[in-house]
Amino acid sequence: MGTDVGESFGLIVDGISLTIALKFHSDLFREVCMKCFAVVCCRMSPLQKSEVVRLVKTSHDNPVTAAIGDGANDVSMIQEAHVGIGNLAYSQPIISQDRKSRSEWDSCIAELS
User: Fold this and answer.
1) Could you report the per-residue pLDDT of 61-101, keeping only the tens digit for each?
2) Which helix (H) or strand (E) holds 87?
3) CB under 8 Å, gap of 24 or more: what pairs does 77-83 form?
4) Are 34 and 63 contacting, i.e. CB atoms less than 8 angstroms apart?
5) Which of 15, 20, 33, 55 lies at a CB distance of 3.0 to 4.6 Å from 44, suitable for a disulfide?
6) How many of the other CB atoms lie within 10 Å of CB of 29?
């Protein structure tokens, strides 16, 4: 898959399409993801979201992955990525008891191990 200089591509994938792609064409799906500027995962389970991050993260090129989410269903994806960003404005239940939100628009970065 070659791309011309200056071209940018993105990918939007839903849960049903991801299931088929991973079952029959996981290497091709990884290659497509690697050529994209961004991959947007929608209408899929939290496990599927983290699988997409893991698939890209474990490629031979060793890319640094980032995941951005806005709800409790994005936590596993955020934790799987090298850099995770979560908007806690609408996700207050996922904040631990010892961490207090400073404002309605606080964000968090997943702890990297």
Assistant:
1) 999 999 999 888 899 999 999 999 988 665 555 444 344 44
2) strand 83-87
3) 77/41, 77/46, 77/49, 77/50, 77/52, 77/53, 78/110, 79/50, 79/110, 80/50, 80/53, 80/54, 81/53, 81/57, 81/110, 82/57, 82/112, 83/109, 83/110, 83/112
4) yes
5) 15
6) 22
Q: What percent of the chain has pLDDT over 70?
A: 72
In the sheet with 83-87, reading across from the earlier edge strand, the strands are 66-69, 83-87, 107-109
Calculate Rg over the CA atoms of the chain: 15
* H/E element, 69: strand 66-69
Q: What is the 3-state secondary structure (H, E, C) of 17-48?
A: HHHHHHHHHHHHHHHHHHHCCEEEEECCCHHH
| Domain boundaries of the chain, sorted by first residue | 10-109
Report the SS3 class of residue 75: helix
Q: Residues 6 or more apart from 23 whose CB is under 8 A from it?
A: none
Asked whether 85 and 105 are in contact (CB, 8 A), the reply is: no
